[in-house]
Amino acid sequence: MSDDVRVRFAPSPTGRLHIGGARTALFNWAYARRRGGRFVLRVEDTDRQRSTPEFEQAILDGLSWLGIDWDEGPIVGGDRGPYRQSERREAHLATAGKLAEAGWLYRCFCSPERLASLREEQIARKETAAYDGRCRELTAEECDGRVNAGEAPVLRFRVPAGETRFSDLIRGDVAFQNREVDDWVTVRADGSPTYNFVVVCDDAHMAITHVIRGEEHLTNTPKQVLLYRALELEVPEFAHLPLILGQDKKKLSKRTGDTALDDYKDKGFPPEAVLNFLSLQGWALDGETEVFSIDQLASHFDVVDVSKGGSIFDAEKLLWLAGQYLRDEDLDHLVERAGPFLVRAGYLAESELADRAEFVRAAVATVQERSRTYAEVAEQLAYLFVPDDAVEYSEKGEKNARKQGNDALSAYLPWLTDRLAQRASADELRDATKAWVAERGDKMPALFAPLRCALTGAPGGPDLFEVIALLGPERTLARVGAGLERLG
RNA sequence: GGCCCCAUGGAGUAACUGGUCAACUCGUCAGGUUCUCAACCUGGAGACUGGGGGUUCGAAUCCCCCUGGGGUCACCA
Domain check: are A331 and A412 in the same one? Predict the structure, then answer.
């Protein structure tokens, strides 16, 4: 039934939330919303060495930052918990017991060393590396004897002959020969259950109807399908999402760029833009609309529309999208988001954000249309927060200035001093200045290039009269004075 | 290497169940606008839909082969 769709996102808290994981979560979420189903969050923290509460928190925070909420899982609870895998150990072992009883599991005493050399040999012979079944037919007596002698066996799944096929919502029918699927370990020698085993236990327990995950799990699927059947459970629908690739066309990894969602948060990307971008990796709303909200995603998304091929992560397009969102933000909202970046850059103290609110607001307003991230907002305002005699002249800015010479600027200084004393408004000053330049028979850049360099050091930027308004008369004149010397 | 998956301009995608010039967005190039940068506007280049065979009146869409790329082969998840 379409109305009891249940999907899940099952990250392991062994690192920060990966950009690919974030998209997997997003597509699961969107599918649940579209179908009126439930989105379950399950934390797979069974690798106790590597799992930490901090990473778990970071992952939850990452999802929240994007605007993804979950109906069941950590914090919110639910009646099919616990949602932390480590807390489900008993249920896992009970299921293992049941399976063993039914004859699906057998004890294996092969040493890791034997398995390793077996693998090597098989690879050398160009065969599929798989367990050879040496312990498959041991009798109960033999096994008990070895256990009493102190050997600790693993429990392997007895893969039947034949083939396993399943239908993938994105890829269609997929078939694997069972002989290619080895008798994999379900319970380790120390009694802990393995990943492929617990995934099925948990997905079944949580009544997951659609398993939507990354393509790297495609080869795990036959093992899991076999397990569902052995357990006499209904097999869920599967959908394997194409991978997000780096510039090298390989699975996105740290080598090829920022892979953690946090990196984009830290770099000041609007979360809406990141979410929008992620949606576009493997999916399109209608083939025309590029910029859309999370609500539009939720009302249009369907996994069957996801494309099969992996997509290369294009940072340029993400930046473009970021700019779309940032320019569209309400100024107060933008100030709120960009403020922390001004503080982080060391331009302002936290308290000044409030104390100098009007100034900050006016400053941010000047760069909104030319910024794509909050970090860029701060970056472009850097010139405001340096001493007037130490404005950093960019190479290009200075070159532009020197090309024009100092004549216009030095003549302008006394004129400007006078105007500023009369408290001319930005608009008045702009008009008057242009008239003044024209009267001298100069081209506009003759004055503006050196003036811009003196005031901001940059080759381009906001309207200079807005800059002057931000700096105020005193600092403006100080900078022009300093500029005349430095450029002379 | 075995197995599995995939393949539309540089990138992301579209093209209903095969049907006129393969569409949109990013990027790129040129011009306009601006003191300038960005934004914005206009225009352009860029794909014989990886290659080769079929099926068909007709294929990016169906079939086969090849090539290329990726994923995966643990007592990690």
Answer: no
- Taking the C1' atom of every nucleotide in all shown strands and the CA of A218, the nearest one is B4
Is A361 found in the same domain as A463?
no
Complex ipTM:
0.95
A76 φ, ψ (degrees, to nearest 5): -85, -20
pLDDT (tens digit per residue) in A171-212: 999 999 999 999 999 999 999 999 999 999 999 999 999 999
Q: How much is the pTM?
A: 0.94
Q: Is A316 exposed, middle or buried (0-12, 13-18, 19+ CB in 10 A)?
A: exposed
Structure tokens at A202: 């948990």
Question: How many Å does it take to go from CA A142 to C1' B36?
Answer: 86
Q: CATH no. for residue A418? A: 1.10.10.350
Separation between the CA of A295 and the C1’ of B73 (whole angstroms): 40
Measured CA distances, A323 to A269, A327, A329, A468 (Å):
9, 6, 10, 26
Report the distance separating Cα A144 and Cα A147, nearest Å. Answer: 5
For the stretch A450-476, pLDDT in tens is 999 999 999 999 999 999 999 999 999
